[in-house]
Amino acid sequence: MLRRHSVGAAITTLTVLALAIYDQGCSASTEGSGSVSVSASGSGGSGGASDVASSSGVGGAGGGGGGAGGSAPSCEPYDGAVLAIDEIFLGANGFDGTKASDAWKEFGFDLDGQTTGADTSKHCLPVMGGATSAFGDGPMGRDNSFGRNVLPAVNALVPPLDQQANDAISKGQFTQLFAFEGLGSEANVDKLTTRVFGGAPLGKAPAWNGGDCWPLLHETLTNPADPASAKTLFVDSKIVNNRWESNGTRDFVLALNVAGITVPITIYQARMSAQLAPTHEGGALGQIGGYVKTEEFVKSVRVVAGVLGQTACDAFDSVLANQIRRASDILDDGTQDPTKTCNAISVGIGFTLRKVGLGDVAKPVTLLEDACN
Questions:
Q1: What region does 210 belong to: left with phi over 0, alpha with psi -120 to 50, or beta?
Q2: Which of 13, 236, 310, 353, CA to CA, is 20 to 30 A from 57?
């Protein structure tokens, strides 16, 4: 079981572009670069363990970890398996690492129950003269307008978000933790409680050898004194042939950290899945899917422009904000209605996982407000 543990270290200020995912809160991290890569074939990244699930469901060989010297801290006792995101895919690269303009098609879920192609007669109406061609789904009806339409617009202005996010993960700046309660080596579990936490800065590069005690973000808990009180909680998740499914949805928060700024972005009705290794010490082909409410998303991203100055605010308001709005492809209740204008943007994200331990609960994070006039 999880125990209470006090916190001693403060969270430092971000100085690089990074991406963190957690529920109802956000994080800060320290400067860093480099990358730890785990592909869909199950090969391990530099200096880390590599017992992850492959696209065929076969785990890679286990390996020792590198990382900082000195004695490792003791992790919180936990009856179950704890895995952390070691690589994230926002839509620029596929699971095999190949860069492609249509890599976004690999990520997400069918949110609206329809596969949208040339026929958009059952689809909500485009925003501000947007083209219906922006509505196209990926295979199996996957909805991911963020990867298809928003990410290319953002990547044209800043270094690729995928690269920046994985640089930060490899330096221990953030991660996402999945705690599977009571999970041993079973390949099939009908009902499983899964807690999802945001990972605060680790303070060093993760070794990915199972011994990293990753601190929990204060904001991901309903009661920071109780590490068991995760805001993102799937009580009916399940595992079938080592594939984990959230088996339900929860509102979730994506924290987009740009130029030292942490911007929380709510993803609604988020669902998740991942193919676990047979040992349950890693995972691949992870999926997160849901949608953001367009104007909430625009306001969140605008905070970044405010830090850069009024010129950046003006440029955002006149160009990028409208590009984001035109990416709207779903309604803000997750449905479609051809009589209504789209006011939300579907999101699909991929990830891989490695074994870690649970650390302390970190101190709260202070967020910046919109400084644009």
A1: left
A2: 236
With residue 308 as reference, give the H or E element that holds it.
helix 294-308
pTM of the model: 0.80
pLDDT in tens, 262-291: 667 788 999 999 999 999 999 999 999 999
Question: Which one-letter DSSP state was computed for residue 319?
Answer: I
Under 8 Å CB-to-CB from 74, ≥6 apart: which residues? 213
Closest CA to 256 of 303, 290, 308, 206: 303
Q: How far lies 137's CA from each of 133, 201, 332, 348, 370, in Å?
A: 10, 36, 18, 11, 33
Most distant pair of Cα atoms in the chain: their distance: 63
Q: What angle do CA 164, 167, 173 make, to 5 degrees?
A: 105
> What is residue 367's DSSP assignment?
P
Residues 202, 206, 210, 214: what is their CA dihedral angle, to the nearest 10 degrees?
A: 10
| pLDDT tens, residue by residue, 300-328 | 888 878 887 888 899 889 889 999 999 99
